[in-house]
Amino acid sequence: MSTFTIDTSTSRATPSPVPGKRMTAPSIRGRKVDGKTEQPIVMLTAYTMRMAQLLDPHCDMLLVGDSLGQVIYGLPSTIPVTMDMMCAHGAAVVRGSWHALVAVDMPFGSYEASPEQAFTCASRIMKETGCAAVKLEGGEAMAPTIEFLTHRSIPVIGHVGLTPQAVNILGGYGARGREEKEADKIIADARAVDQAGAFCIVVEGVLEAVADDITAKVGAPIIGIGASAQCDGQVLVTDDMLGMFERTPRFVKRYDDLAARIGEAARVYADEVRARSFPTPDQTYRPKS
Ligand code: KIV
Fold first, then answer.
1. Candidate list 128, 137, 147, 204, residue with the active-site label
2. Under DSSP, is residue 75 helix (H, G, I), strand (E, B) or coil?
3. Entry pTM
């Protein structure tokens, strides 16, 4: 179970929540008016309390993505990710945030069988994490499920184009929509998800022209990843944009090189431990005088 709030007396950080209301599904949906989004929507992934605290002031939405399978757990894909993982990390991210809407990915196998299965799993995610929305992958085939959930008070983010949970059907993570037929299908998927009631839609790994077309034609805000700067918003996997991995997809811009910086800090620490130059008097306890 989650408390949804952080104990500031025991936390190492000094979170200073700004009083105010969290972003909501209607406030995100309302950012796109008459097909235009004046202020693009900012979304990043977060899997831990501390990362949520750091990202929250800058983001409209935090996504507890099932990419945590690869990023946190070292799994080969998102397929093995479980409900327990999503609930534990979702609750941590809600505890570490106060401004952004927190959305949690529904893991593979938790929603595809039926709208009823999706409701059972999505309601568990919402109860155990305190998140305000779930995200699920799929287009026309998932539209009845999205409608079922939204009509039962569960805000849904759609996800079309390159859908990583379908890697075994797609045969890889390459960009989608190169053929006209496939591009038309992705546009039809986005339309179906929009009409089913998704309050925004992630469009991943598609040709720029396809993303632009969807953004122009679909009422709900389109959040691009490997898509187009003209989308209504953008999302990236935070660890990718921070440079935590040597290899990242082409569409990722690295805003830092944290892997190298962490490695260097660990090297200096190891040298100091081996030289017995750490800890210094500053880090040791002495009798009180
Ligand atoms: O799981 C995830 O991080 C995602 C984003 C890449 C959109 O779905």
1. 204
2. coil
3. 0.95
